[in-house]
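DUF8006 domain-containing protein
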Amino acid sequence: MLPLQLIDSFLLNYNIGQALLLVFILSTVGALPLKSRRILGINTIVFGLIFLLTPVAIAKPHYLFLGIALLIVGPILFVSGRR
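Structure:
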């Protein structure tokens, strides 16, 4: 478990959009060894919703457009995956 001071000192240097983007990239890289497009699709949809629902007051507006793009790409990945 990480101490809260470490997390707080990390988040002070970046805005919430950048931190969410880092978590999205790390979770996508973590899901790659599973070789499942369905899991990547679900991951993309979830982070699309997170980016879309993040208030613009604490993140820049271009993260909203990233969320919309992820919500378009995510279902395509999910449907193209094998059962």
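The chain has a mean pLDDT of 90.
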